[in-house]
Design goal:
about 325 residues; alpha/beta; Rossmann fold; seven-stranded mixed sheet; six-stranded parallel sheet; 11 helices; globular
């Protein structure tokens, strides 16, 4: 099969290459998936550069997310899964077989049935961002009747956080940096959209809805003052991204608010949290409540340019179409 791979850390142009390698075979409890679309996330290029290094077992095929069709099952897997359309999560976590290849092999629970009518490009856009959003939203309890603030509602995690929170019965406020991103957040279903660059952003948020119960945060240092200003006592601020410089924590202000700070890194969440996320995401897909972001498409031969686009902050999702 044709696969993109690297065997050392470095820039995309220096270390990523496309080669013909032997097609993998599924072991016990595994399935093999013919990949149709591979989705790229920031974690993929960070692992490849060594910024967040992961062990390389001889070589690494990158990308956790993808969509395709199961074409072979291993021992102990229901043969009826052959021919099933699926979306994949964390395919390259501790394994060689990421989705930037014509085939990937994953444990069967990491190949989740894609509901009828859902396009492969949406399936390949889920994985890391949708599961991150789910963990941030639900790690501290149900959302029905809650007010949720999603920072960066035009990003992939923010997009799915808005949609999953609305599906769960929450009122959703989101912050963005400009009109184009406001349109994306509104399309995702946010009840209210505020430009965080406005001097009165906190006043706007307070005027729109009851005090915030939960904040989904991507820039804790930059936004914590705003988060505290709009949150009710005992709120949860959940952050899933690291800034270049560690934030200074206003301890007294956090104590006064009795706020809980939670940090989420998808690689370390409990297995049952992954499984619940997969069930809830699939349920939202089935109900027609999850939508795609604007898409930039590449071929496998242009995998380095695709990863560079994600590293440069491309709006929406960057996908690779597999032959």
């Amino acid at each position: 099969m044709r696969a993109a791979l690297y065997d050392r850390y470095g820039t995309a142009g220096d270390v990523l290459r496309v080669e013909e390698i032997e097609r993998p075979e599924p072991g016990p409890g595994e399935v093999r998936v013919k990949i149709e679309v591979s989705g790229i996330n920031p974690t993929d290029w960070k692992s490849r550069t060594g910024a967040t290094p992961r062990p390389i077992d001889g070589f690494q095929i990158p990308h956790h997310d993808g969509a395709g069709v199961i074409d072979k099952v291993g021992e102990g897997v229901d043969p009826g899964r052959n021919g099933e359309r699926v979306w994949l999560w964390m395919a390259a976590a501790g394994r060689r077989w990421g989705t930037a290849a014509q085939w990937s092999v994953v444990p069967e629970r990491q190949a989740v049935r894609l509901p009828d009518g859902i396009p492969a490009e949406l399936g390949a856009s889920l994985g890391v961002p949708a599961m991150t959003a789910h963990r941030c939203l639900f790690s501290d309890g149900p959302l029905d009747g809650k007010t949720i603030l999603v920072a960066g509602g035009a990003g992939a995690v923010g997009h799915f956080a808005i949609e999953l929170a609305k599906h769960a019965g929450a009122t959703v406020i989101t912050t963005v940096s400009g009109p184009q991103k406001a349109e994306l957040a509104t399309w995702a279903g946010a009840d209210y959209v505020v430009n965080y660059r406005d001097a009165d952003a906190a006043d706007q948020i307070r005027s729109l809805a009851p005090p915030v119960d939960r904040v989904i945060e991507l820039a804790l240092g930059a936004n914590l003052q705003l988060d505290l200003a709009v949150s009710r006592p005992h709120a949860h601020v959940v952050t899933y991204a690291a800034e270049p410089a560690d934030p200074e924590l206003p301890v007294r202000a956090c104590m006064t608010a009795n706020v809980t700070l939670r940090f989420v890194l998808l690689y370390g969440i409990p297995p049952e949290a992954f499984d619940q996320a997969a069930r809830d995401i699939t349920a939202a897909l089935t109900d027609g409540k999850l939508t795609g972001l604007p898409v930039t498409r590449f071929t496998l031969d242009d995998v380095a340019a695709a990863q560079d686009a994600v590293e440069a902050g491309a709006l929406g999702k960057v996908l690779i179409d597999l032959p």
